[in-house]
Amino acid sequence: MALLEVKNLGIVFGGLHAVEGFNLSLEKGMLYGLIGPNGAGKTTVFNLLTGVYKPTTGTFSLDGVKLTGKNPVEISKAGIARTFQNIRLFKKLSVLDNVKLGLHNQVKYSTAEGILRLPRFFKSEKKMNEKAMELLKVFGLENEASTLADNLPYGKQRKLEIARALATNPKLLLLDEPAAGMNPSETQELMDTIRFVRDNFDMTILLIEHDMKLVSGICEEVTVLNFGEELAQGKTSEVLNNPEVIKAYLGD
Amino acid sequence: MEFLSTIISGISLGSIYALIALGYTMVYGIAKMLNFAHGDVIMVGAFMMFTALTKTSLPPIACIIVGTIICTVLGMLIEKIAYKPLRSATSLSVLITAIGVSYFLQNSAQLIFGAGTKQFTPLFGNGSVSLFDGQVVISHNTIVTIIISVVLMIVLTLFINKTKTGRAMLAVSEDKGAAQLMGINVNKTISITFAIGSALAAIAGALLCSSYPILSPTTGAMPGIKAFTAAVFGGIGSIPGAMIGGILLGVIENLSKVYISTQLSDAIVFGILIIILLVKPTGILGKKISEKV
């Protein structure tokens, strides 16, 4: 059974069919690309899969659990995590605290235990710190743990967003334009990081990207969206050479 | 030496304002709304304690705890019934609702306890400590007020910065959407914020009525407005700002009462507020929000 099963997913804003009849089946461990011209509905698909928008039609499920109509908190707990096109870190908090927020639901102690500083509070916070530091090490951010997220350089902010998403212990990771605004060497490093995450965290990754070098470099398969509908789907190299796809990107 | 005792009683009054201001600033930070019913929670807390003190034989500390628990629940109820359904409404609608809740609480108190004033028994006795051969006399009430306020502010600061609920509150105040996608329950976090703010208000009510032992259904209104002023003064949304703003406001108020005029003290306090906001519109610790281009 596929990890993520999306069937006929669609959403209408007013009269606009932002996404229509979207189907996707992701096997565990896949690195999958979602591409298309600006305004094709790619980020809308992410917003549907994370519960930010409620779909007008269709269903999707993760590991056989139906998630359609669930809210973002429930979906996060079910195992879908994401990053954002425009980085949305908690900028006024430290790098470490950002990752610890991702761990929010994995360590349990009550608010009262926190106020009264009972033993379970210290034990849980210690566990959270260790887990968060482990994750920061993976991304080479351990020396910046106490820096404010806002003061990190751009490339590291992108990495921190991935680390924070991984902290929620997801089964599926959605990356929204991870290479946006990066130079070629940063993009190369990012490709290595994404591969590393897939291999070492047993992760399934669905990513939106405009950088075709990154897409053809790491995605095994892609779906091309255009005007909210699927234009092509299949092996990356084949799809990228499809005349219809080239036409959608470059015009007639 | 008059100066020293004026400053100390100013700090005492100011720490009460600070405790109330914390409720305003936390709720503003997280729900982006001005909860004008916050001042009346003080009054409800004080009435609950008054009732417990006069109708039961519980010790004062137990009465404070009873009042605090009732106000905590009240704060959460107000949020759930009056504000939560308006989560996506314009801020003006929420503001009007808050004013409505404020009047509802005042009038309910009038109905239940009557419109007249009640004599509140100081919770910490009438004793005092004299320093410098009796040149400076500080009442027990003043000392207890300062100690309780400082302890509560330290506990709150630790709670906000070091616990996962506190972190969740900071995250929600910065970006609700991103916080939700991290699995943080925004509604629950807002509810906890109201609970903490109201608990602080109830304790502030006990301290206030111990120092100024007159209780009526409008008791909470003026301290509420002043604490709101303190929150704006310190930079609304900022927790250390509310503490500093509150204490400064109390000291300024007391100094002007002693050295200028009792009748004019409120005018002076608000006048200083206007001047500070003219010079620094975001308040003492408020950050200027600059859009990145």
Brief summary:
The complex is a heterodimer of chains A (about 250) and B (about 290). Chain A has about 250 residues and is of the alpha/beta class.
Runs of chain A in which pLDDT lies below 50 for 5 or more consecutive residues are none
Which percent bin holds the helix content of chain A? 25-40%
Order of helices and strands of chain B: HHHHEEEHHHHEHHH
Number of helices of chain A: 10
Coarse structural class of chain B: mainly alpha
Strand content of chain B: under 5%
Mean pLDDT rating of chain A: 90
Q: What is the end-to-end distance of chain B?
A: 55 Å
Q: What's the quaternary structure here?
A: heterodimer
Describe the structure.
The complex is a heterodimer of chains A (252) and B (293). Chain A has 252 residues and is α/β, with parallel strands linked by helices. Chain A is 40% helix and 24% strand. In chain A, the strands form two sheets. Chain A has a six-stranded mixed beta sheet with strand order 6-7-8-3-9-10, sandwiched between helices. In chain A, helix 3 (95-102) packs across helix 5, helix 3 runs parallel beside helix 6 (154-167) and helix 5 (119-138) crosses helix 6 (154-167). Chain B has one domain. Chain B contains eleven helices and four strands, in the order H-H-H-H-E-E-E-H-H-H-H-E-H-H-H. Chain B has helices spanning 2-31, 38-55, 60-83, 91-113, 140-162, 164-174, 176-181, 186-211, 221-234, 239-259, 265-279; strands at 118-119, 128-131, 136-139, 214-215. A two-stranded antiparallel sheet of chain B has the order 1-4. A two-stranded antiparallel ribbon of chain B has the order 2-3. Classes of the chains: A alpha/beta (252), B mainly alpha (293). The A-B interface holds A 50, 52, 71-73, 76-77, 81-82, 84, 88-93, 97, 100-102, 104-105, 107, 109, 111, 114-115, 117, 121, 124-125, 128, 164, 168 and B 155, 158-159, 162-168, 170-171, 174-175, 177-186, 192.
